[in-house]
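Quick log. Single chain, no ligands specified.
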Amino acid sequence: MYVKIWQRYLIREIVSFFFLFLGCFYSIYALIDYSLHMQDFMQDTRITFSHIFLYYLFEFIKRADLLIPLAVLITTIKVLFALNIKGELVALRASGLSLRVILRPFFYLAIALAVFNYISNEWILPSSLTFVDRFQEQHWKPSSKDSHLYTLSLSDQSKLIYQTKDPQKQLLTDVFWVRSADEIWHMKSLCYDLKQPIGFFVDQLRRSNKGHFEKIESFEEYPFTLFSKGLLENYKIPISLENQKMSTLFKDLIQKRVSPYEYPIALSYFLLKMTTPFLSLLVVLAIAPFCISHRRCFPVFLTYALALFGFIAFFTLLDAAVILSENETISAFYAILFPFCICFSLFSYRYFKRVQ
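-> predicted structure:
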């Protein structure tokens, strides 16, 4: 009873088109992704419909930091241009409403989605990322072009670095056990199913007095009793820094529970999780002034094209900033916070100047 007719109309238009675009866009993405991995889904008899449903649900949560601001951007352009072209914006202005009042529903939506993204980053996204990673690891066949390396931390602070994993055979391939800075073990494969893991075609490397690694011994099979307990305990729940909660990353950074190598990576992901929810608010600030101007001809196509180009360019810049901060080329505070601060300053200045 406290919501006026024009507010109900505007909220209905915003919400309906937001969910329409979000649902259609993600449905197309899910359909394309399913067609690419259809063979893996059909050949693996362990996969049920519920598994596929959960996978794409968690995949949506994983992509929400990109999809939600994009949906807000398209919704803002569409609704404001529709109001402008039909003359409804002029009618609202003539009734005594200011532009700030008219644009409030867009900011309410952006703020609500920012809160949702913060909740997701803390409680929903970490488990979603872990589920997606394990699902792909268990059910998807590794590509021949896949050259990713995976790291597993053991209880004695040593690390296992491997290239591929076969969950059915419980076998790691092309494995390096970095026991210390002066000792490395390399093996062609490692079976971790047994109480006593066994490596096959194992080489022991040790640093010489000259600083070079030299092969000390070789074995066709070698029982790794040194880290059997640590391997079996830590292998079951490997959680990467990207999959950690914001609160966990914050505690790790404050209490310095991460290694000097992992510190810039943890800081980069923490700052990224703290800033990306504001993208929904940023896109409204950026595009609203362009959609409420009065013209004879409204450049609808040009506005959509430039808005999408700017959105993609900003995300590309953000990805580059994360890479630079992870490798300590640039401090994470400058690499990640600087683009957000600059964009918020420029677009906020233009917005408040336009709506005065």
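The two ends are 29 Å apart (CA to CA).
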